[in-house]
Amino acid sequence: MSGYLAVIVVVLIFVVIFQIAKASEYVSILKGEKKAREQSNRINGFLMIVFLVLGLIGVWYCHDLMDDSMLGEPASDHGVGVDGLIKVTFIITMIVFVLTQIALFVFAWKYQEKDGRKAFFYPHNNKLEVIWTVIPAIVLTVLVAFGIRHWLRMTSDAPKESMIVEVTGKQFNWIVRYPGKDGQLGRRNFKLTNDSNNPVGQDWADSLNHDDVIAPDLHVVVGKPVKLIIGSRDVVHDVGLPHFRLKMDAVPGIPTTLWFTPTITTAEYRKRTGNPDFVYELACDQMCGNGHYSMKANIIVETQEEYDKWLATQVTQYSQAHPAPEAAPAAPAVPADSTKAVAALTK
Amino acid sequence: MSNEATLHSQESLHHGHDDHGHGHDGHDHHHEETFISKYVFSMDHKMIAKQFLITGIIWAIIGAFFSVLFRLQLGFPDATFPWLESILGHWAEGGRITPEAYYALVTMHGTILVFFVLTAGLSGTFSNLLIPLQVGARDMASPFMNMLSYWFFFTASLVMMSSLFVQTGPASGGWTSYPPLSALGDASIGSKIGMDLWLISMALFVVSSLLGSLNYISTILNMRTKGMSMTKMPLTIWSFLFTAVLGVLSFPVLLSGFVLLLFDRHGGTSFYLSELFVQGKVLPNEGGSAILYQHLFWFLGHPEVYIIILPAMGMVSEILAVNSRKPIFGYLAMVGSMFAITVLAFLVWAHHMFVTGLNPFLGAFFVLLTLLIAVPSAIKVFNWITTIWRGNIRFTPASLFSIGFVSTFISGGLTGIWLGNSAIDIHLHDTYFVIAHFHIVMGVSAFFGMFAGVYHWFPKMYGRYMNQTLGFIHFWITLVGAYLIFWPMHYQGMAGMPRRYFDYSNWASFNQFEGLNAFISFVVIIVFATQLLFVFNFFYSIFKGRKLTTTNPWAATTLEWTTPINPGHGNWPGEIPEVHRWAYDYSKDGKDFIPQTVPVSPDESGH
Known about the structure:
The complex is a heterodimer of chains A (347) and B (607). Chain A has 347 residues and is an alpha+beta fold. Chain A has a domain at 163-321: Immunoglobulin-like. In chain A, 46% of the residues lie in helices and 16% in strands. Chain A has helices at 2-31, 33-66, 77-110, 126-154, 266-273, 304-313, 317-321, 338-346, and strands at 163-170, 173-178, 213-215, 218-221, 226-232, 237-241, 246-250, 256-260, 280-284, 296-302. In chain A, the strands form 2 sheets. Chain A has a 5-stranded mixed sheet with strand order 3-2-1-5-8, with no helix packed on it. Chain A has a 5-stranded mixed sheet with strand order 4-10-9-6-7. Helices cover 62% and strands 2% of the residues of chain B. The longest helix of chain B is centred in the first third of the chain and has 37 residues, at 99-135. The two termini of chain B are 49 Å apart. Chains A and B meet through helix 1, helix 2, helix 3, helix 4 and strand 7 of A and helix 1, helix 7, strand 1, strand 2 and helix 11 of B.
């Protein structure tokens, strides 16, 4: 019922607006086109200035209002660089934004049609045009230089001492694999994948796999570079790490990598933000299907000690998949030729 | 005197005016046209333009309405709207949109607005209307191909529309339709028959676009009237030329991407598919690259945003000059910057793919080339501002929307400098910052250009004016609303809030924006209603608008205003006028304006 009422109200508002508009058209004809235009010019010219002033206040107000909702300090060294670059870019673009908007709306207001005003025939001025080609070019060169420097640093090879963690996306959650004591991840073969005991298709013939651990959350050690090896089982996902200011797609068949050094433990971040429930989240940032919005993992940044303790409590995927020795991987969904593939790989 | 009489009181005065040309050869009386040949299968570029425009308006209403529906979910995730169930059925069980429906709505919103409205509806309308009229041609180079172009678009529209009604729903993998999601029916319900219909529709759309673009190019290059050298063309025509060139060179690449996707879906090929495990099954595909599709897609996808924005730029340049009573500042720089944008448009596509695992070294080049495009864009902005400087500006709805265009183009363009820098993009990619950026710079701006064009050339299309007051209301609410909707989204994006999420309530990092989301959705509804006001104004004015009493209502210099108020097929009843000067002699030597058809007198100052 209230729905119908709302529709009726909207229609009535439309009718009123339309009647006003129609009436003003009649008035303008009776008054003469020139007079009518003078009046609408005055109103619109005035609105130009109102819009400019209220708009700039609104920009300021919005910035102020949103301040509390922004991400806290970046939790990785790369993130500090990203935030720095954002700050520089913010200042430069904001200056240009304010100046050009002021020029646009002030000119529109100031040079509205008036009796006796003559427009200035000013078809071009090469000097002026060269100036405003060169200045943006220089400013942009500076931004490009800063940007590429950060970019190449972030995407450089991971330091040798980095710990390695594999993150695999699937509809609609993340599978995180840790290399175990040997620090090396075992080989994978997607044909061996099954949901009951081998979610990322580990090839058990590779003994490096035997101590690998699989968990739903991403544990990383503070101050220690971590190299993520990112992949996907089905569609394109994206490892989004908002607090670390990083992101990398998870593409099926094409592993990608991303490395960073976490700088603040979860516990420390809780203390700094005063929020005891704070948790780093890993968000899927690439549309991956109907559950895209729920594809989350928690990230736990902890000390080496805590990490080792946690890892020690984990059961390896190998032992989960091999409750009794020599049991063939129970995989009804694996095609018959997978054994051949395994054989080929073990050769 | 009754109102109606007031409205049309001046008509009789000018009837004699209209009849002027008819005596010479009565061109438009030679062949009697039937309803079908005049309004349906018309080969008159002006009628085809109207067909594109009205089809585009219908699509725009649908596409915008979809955004209202999914904004209801985003703004009021806990509320239920029983009427939604009445229109969407089980897609909105209990009055709340399902995730499946949400993703379908988002996907169709993007597809419809980008391709069907802002490509076909914008470039299709105004290229068709203005190219022959402004270069001085009787029609397009091939009127028949032009007609085909519309009917391919119409067929594409039918197929896309039908996909909304299939049982498994329309495509729902985003307007970019990245495989493997879009390739595998098992991965998403929208990737079943809906995706096939999407691909077929888009293929037809590409054909339509190519037929149109080839026609635009050949008409501009070959059919200009006597004296109309390339440098005497209005900037609108330059912008349509560059738009058409972009389309011809990039749409075929998109088509190839779609064809390969169809093969992967139904031919058992593995162009995009590799090492997949979906719904508990290992798929046999190996060796494909999901990234290949993204390259093919964005090789069109990026030029596409310039296909959308260039015509708007051209029209805004023209309208600002006319209404400031000043020449456009830096004509050659405007043409040059459009040329630069056209060339660079082909060299920046991978900035959509910085985080796909693209070689970082290659990424660095795309950063450089992307930020380079800001230079010609900056030139254009400064030139527009200088055009209105010391002008004598008339605020018509068209000139207001043109000023609004410059404002939003600045706002959205500047955030492009953020996203084009890969080291910032790595944080902001696929967040609301991107939504804010591209909606302002190509959504709102292109729509402003389109509105400006409709208000400005409506008298040429229908021989009547649109209601000005409604136009003013439309402009101010839309401008304010657009900023209120999209400006705060920048901040959501900086907070890392990912786009294309159905619900944020389970995320500790992103659920602080509840109030803001509701506010944005509220503004969306108001702005949407205001657009309906425009639609009403448009259709009402076709039949009941104030009639034109002069052939040149805006006192403009260009050739379209030398035709009769309601030009027949062939545009000029007599000879096509000869052109003697550029299109921007406003306020020169003390004269308000000098039409292009007036010969240059020996004592005239140069420019």
